[in-house]
Structure formats: structure tokens, C-alpha cells
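User: Predict structure, ligand dioxothiomolybdenum(VI) ion.
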Amino acid sequence: MPDTTSALGAPTERREGPAKVTGAARYAAEHLPGGLAHAWPVPATIARGEVASVDDTAALAVPGVVGVLTHLNAPRLGEADDATLAVLQDARVPHRGWYVALVVADTLEAAREGAAAVTVTYAEEPHDVTLDAASPAAYVPEDPDGNPDEHTRGNPDEAFAAAPVRVDVTYEVPPLHNHPMEPHAATARWEEGRLTVHDSSQGATAVRQTLASLFKLPEEQITVVSEHVGGGFGSKGTPRPHVVLASMAARETGRPVKLALPRRHLAAVVGHRSPTVQRLRLGAEADGTLTTLIHEVTSHTSRVKEFVETGAAVSRVMYPSPHARTGNRVLPLDVPSPSWMRAPGEAPGMYALESAMDELAVALGLDPVELRLRNDTRTEPDTGKPFSSRHLAECLREGARRFGWAERDPRPRSRAEGPVLIGSGVAAATYPVLVSPSRASAHAYPDGGYVIRVNATDIGTGARTVLAQVAADALGVPVDRVRTEVGSTDLPAAPLAGGSSGTASWGWAVHEACTRLARRLAGQLGQQLPPEGVGASADTEGTPDTNYAESEYARHAFGAHFAEVGVDAVSGEVRVRRLLGVFAAGHILNARTARSQFIGAMTMGLGMALTEHSTMDKAFGDFAESDLASYHVPVNADVPAMEAHWIDEDDPHLNPMGSKGIGEIGIVGTAAAIGNAVHHATGVRLRELPITPDKLV
Ligand code: MOS
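Assistant: Predicted complex:
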């Protein structure tokens, strides 16, 4: 029986599931071209300075080692926008863990043994890796539009001083690491001047562009394949050093080269969430109406490149206030380069804002759901633009109803089971609606099948599946008649799986291609299709809504999290008992994969709240946690009854599918809801994540 369920919105199972669980799906490190050599990089052991000398004699003597690349013999690369990719180009060591050599060998074991045998001496310089929010070296960076990333409305300081009810609090979020299941890996081979790379990436299009520029090749001479990717959470959103090193080594040795980074290296070379110090000042009238909102965030960046964890951005979206200052500042240090981690900016920013809102509710003696409802708005506070849709109030009300919020006694420490104090908390969520130009093609074949081609990346989210649904919907055919090809630069160019923008961007192009194809087919009704089929392609560069970027609408998804925790008054252990999220993110295109996205991100938020943190070792200048034994992501035993619900929005200002992104909003606000629940349970207000037993007892 063909699957004739309505394609869009149906809980369609992900198509690559059987291939993944049977091992048939091949990841970047699982391609084994003939003559394959293996590479192992050598990380710097100082936090700042220069390589003084490299002795590779012992490494080259290891049986099977075929070469050692260092800044002294590595080929000169072309220009890259991203300075973290200028590997082995000079003697400079900008942070501990920066790669200073690469050993290539016949076997993985020989490469690893060779790497251990390379002797590097350094001219070491004093380093500074301490995030001091008061440092005079911290500055206000430019936002992507080139404006200072500090926005002011009215007179926030005066208004704060005059406010009847005030909260002035500082929150700290530690460095966090993405740690996808599949560490970063690439297999590269050169054949007659053509480079083919299997890379574990969230966006092969950008990897190809970058390799073209670094190796000074036309893009047509490079193919980058990212067919199956075992997660990334932003750490694979940009090209990473491993793909450059593998390509370089393959060219230098004349053999295919595989470089699979050991997890222990990831902490230093593929990004992390920068720690943030966030001062919040909220001023309100006695009825809870906000009169001033000051959100000041300081994060760190490396000396290699500027990356800003833009925590203050959420305070430009959430609540209206006549007086406001929202600013991001950044301090360059001798640290590894921070980068994107799921909801960069929003996740830590919303932890601070929504924790402060809870503190304000307590100060006012007002229910925290009611406080948020009283500060709801139809226009974006920072821009004055109307929201294309905003169902935050509906999410709060629906969540409160499902959670049983009305039965809650607002007094802290009002509920216990034996030694376990029980509390509940709420927090709101928001994430912007982003979209990038994409291309796609659609073909119809005489057997009644259709093929959609787009260089989308399925990082475990179900992108292939949802794009087939988008196509089936636009073509008006059952979804099992549509095949999708994704994950290769040989397909129509498409943007990365990031910024919760993948489905909107690729889907828009797929929808357009299918609509054109359907029109062509309608014109050929009654005629036989040629064996090669009939095709149509679409390029949404200059999207159909040409004013999308300059639209008069502000577009964001919203949500509400409710958490119930039990805190052991003896041990200080916090267990989340229930977590419930309600989201408003346009039309939900696949109920099954959407639920997975929401609860996956909520789980990551639970980790942010209770278990995850990286510690900057000030003496060594590197993170102490570098494996999953020391960096604690939540496991099944940590994850309680978790529910994700949504309010379907009919928003005509989005894209042909009417969808908003859903990859990141689930993590935004989760940690605040849990922290607020811990306060309700215990009466203790912690302002530093994660909430570990040592801080509670
Ligand atoms: Mo996400 S941090 O945009 O991959």
C-alpha cells in the first residue's frame, strides 16, 4: 500500500534509520579507498608562544610512518576567512591544543605512535585565559551588520534607579562543549588534480568553498561528501582543521588520507560555547510591568579569531520595556577558539534573562507565568516591528495547563517527600527564524517516481525525510514516490544545517523546484515521459519574497518550559522529575522528527543545567575535560518523563511550508526552568551553572 497520508506534518519515520542501525550507512571515517594512509595530529603543549624546533627523526623511524608535516615543510595555503584553518602555516602557537605537526602512516597505530615520537620545543610566553568581565581589554564588537553590539533605549540607568521593584543579579555559564557522537573526521583523496573528501560536516558547500580557496583550485575540481553525519550541534557548522590537514596530507603523500580526530582533541580545535558573565538589571512597577531591562554579557574569544557569544540578543526580543540596554562584550584571551554550540547566544542569554525574571517574580510576589503574560507584546521591543506571529502566551498557558501549574504552592520549600525537596519552575524560550538562499532540483521518471536533489545535510535530524515530505506535498504525490539525494557538493548548492534554518532554506528551494516540475508535468499530460525523466530546478537566491530580509516583520519562534525537580536535602543531588515544553514554531512538518528535535534539545538543556561544564585549567591554558568520562552529558538515567508539545501556527510571512526552525529552541530556557525549580524546591538561588551538589549543601 502506498503511503497516502498527508505528507506535511505526518509523523513519517526517518528514511535512513535502517541503514544506520544495520551499519550500512557510512560516515566520513568509514570510507576506505585503496592505498589509504592514516594521519594523527600533534597538539601544542603550551598556551602561548612559538614553536622553536621540531625533531621528527624518531617519528620517521617508526615502522609505517610515511611523513611528518610541520610549519617548516607543509605547503603554503591560500587565503581563508577563518584563521583557525591556517594550519601548519607558521610557528605561532595561539592556544594549547593548536596543531603543530601531522604524522601520516600506513596504519592508525603507526601514525599515533609517530605523533607521540615527534619532539617539539617551544619559546613559551606568559598566557592569560581568565575571563574577567571587568577587564579593560573587553570590547563591544560589531554585529553582523557592522553596528556596535550594544543597543540602548531611553535612559536605562536612571529608570533602574527609580524603579519601585528591582533585581540586580549576575549569572555565570561555564564553557561548554558540543561533543557530537561522531567526532570530526575526513577522508581525502586526490586524483589527477581533483580532490574528493568525505567530511563530517554540517555543510559541505562551505567546506568546498574553503578548500577551493585554501588549495587554490576551482570549486568544480572538488567534491565534498557529507552523506551521514553523527551530530554536530554547531561544531561542524564551519570547516574545521581536520579537513584541511587530511587534504594537505593526501596531496603531499600522493595517497588517500584519513584523519579522524580523537575525542580528546575536540575540546581545543572544533570550538566550544564561550563562558559568559551576565549582569541583569530588571526594574518593574508593583504590578510587574517592566520599566527597564539591562542585560550585559561578557564572553571570551581566542587570539585567532573573534567569536561572540551573543547572550544579550534574547533581551531584544522577549519583553517590552521603555528603557533598555542590551550589550555583548568580548575579551580576547589565549584560549581555544569558541564557536557555535546549539543556540549560540540564546541558550546562555535566556538562562540569565529567565532566571532574573523568576527572581523578579519572587520580589514582586507574583506568579512567574503571570509576570511573563503581563509583559507580553505584539511588537519586537528592539526594532518596533510587529512579530509575524508570537504565541508565547499560548505556550505558557497550554504548558501551565498540561503541567498542572495551578496546583503549585508558590512558597519555596513547600513540598517534600522524605528528604527530597520538590519544586517546579518555568521559563520562556525564543529563537530567531533564519533562512538562506538554496538551490534544489526535482525530476519525474516514467515509473512514477521522483528524485529531489539538494546539498542539504542530515546531521541526524531527519532532513532527508522532511524534504521528501515537502516535495510530496508540492507535487501532490505519496511521499514514498519521492527519493531524496542529499549530502554532496555534486548536488545543487545549499546552505548548512545550522541556525535552525536548514528545513526552511532547503525546503523552500525543494518546494519551488517541485512546483515548477508539477507545472511542466501538467503541460505534458497524456504524453509519455522520456526515460531520463523531466526535470525542474529552483534557485531561491533572491527568495520569492524578495523583501524577506528587510521585511516589516520580526520572525521568531517561542516556547515555554516547565520543570519539576527533586533535590535531596542530604546529598544536594538534583534530579529532574518532569520536563514539559510547549513550542510555537510555525507549522510542524514532521511530528515524529520534530518531537525528537525538541526533546533532544531539552535534554541538552538539562545537561547545561545540571551536569555539563568545562573547566579552564589556568596553569595549562586548556580545558580539563576532554572525554565523555569527565564531560558529563545526560544519560538515559538522567532524563525523566519529558514531553514536547506544540501550538501549530498559521504564519503567512515565513516560507511556502509555513515553518519556523526547531533545532535549537528546545535548549533555550530549559536550564532556567530547572534552576527556577531548584530555587522553588530549596529556597536557594544559584546563579552559576551547572547546579551541582557541592553548590547546594
Ligand atoms: Mo547550530 S549551533 O546553528 O549548528
